[in-house]
TrEMBL record:
Protein name: HTH tetR-type domain-containing protein
Lineage: Bacteria, Pseudomonadati, Pseudomonadota, Alphaproteobacteria, Sphingomonadales
Residue intervals passing through the bilayer: none
GO molecular function: DNA-binding transcription factor activity; transcription cis-regulatory region binding
Keyword DNA-binding: yes
Pfam families per record: TetR_N
Domain HTH tetR-type as annotated: residue spans: 9-69
DNA-binding region(s) in UniProt: 32-51
Keywords assigned by UniProt, alphabetized: DNA-binding
Length: 217
């Protein structure tokens, strides 16, 4: 039986997919090109034929991640700049990253955590891009919700609270990648997503009445 020959672009795709898995597990500093080659079932020389260095390979993975981040924003980005919009967007966010998380999304979160444990450059880029994509609409939504009395209490930095929410989603999604017996949560994914939603909505000052009004709307 003749083995199907894999084209150059297909091999490059396989190497990139393998690199994502290795980078998400070991970070940039800990990953080795030999590990990536073995994960892709190719020689290390072939990896270097497609990518001249580990840094070039890492940058190619980052370009993939940035494209996915942009697509993710288009799907989950705030549509209504008010309390209802904040709650609905957060509900979609937590359901997506917790209850419906896919492998590539979990890899992105693990890469962020690995970066934070290393030089932090990748995580810093991801967070700055997230702020740039979300800042204007989220700021308007907070302002409108406070003026309507739906956000109460001490005013908090909108940029900080947006990052706090992203950190909650990142950590929960990363922990979900553990074996079920090692996860420290006592609820299934849907209940966990709703607990995270209530926790973060309360944290930014939305009242329970307001959350209940819009959470299932």
């Amino acid at each position: 039986m003749t083995r199907k020959r894999i084209s150059g672009p297909e091999r490059r795709t396989l190497i990139l997919a393998a690199a994502r898995r290795v980078f998400s597990q070991y970070g940039y500093e800990g990953a080795k090109t030999l590990q990536i080659a073995r994960e892709a079932n190719v020689s290390e020389a072939l990896v270097y034929r497609h990518f001249p260095s580990k840094l070039a390979l890492y940058r190619a993975v980052m370009r993939q991640v940035f494209k996915e981040q942009d697509d993710h924003y288009q799907l989950l980005g705030l549509q209504e700049t008010n309390a209802a919009g904040l709650i609905r967007t957060l509900k979609t966010y937590f359901r997506t990253v917790i209850a419906e998380a896919e492998e590539d999304q979990e890899q992105r979160f693990r890469m962020t955590l690995a970066s934070l444990a290393g030089d932090g450059n990748y995580a810093s880029l991801i967070y700055r891009r997230s702020q740039r994509l979300n800042a204007k609409k989220v700021g308007e939504a907070h302002k409108n919700a406070r003026e309507s009395g739906e956000i109460t209490g001490k005013p908090l930095s909108v940029a900080n609270t947006a990052m706090f929410i992203e950190h909650v989603g990142t950590m929960i999604s990363a922990i979900r990648a553990l074996a079920p017996a090692s996860r420290p949560y006592d609820s299934d994914n849907e209940d966990l997503a709703m607990d995270a939603l209530w926790f973060c909505c309360r944290g930014i000052g939305l009242t329970d009445d307001v959350i209940a009004r819009y959470i299932d709307a």
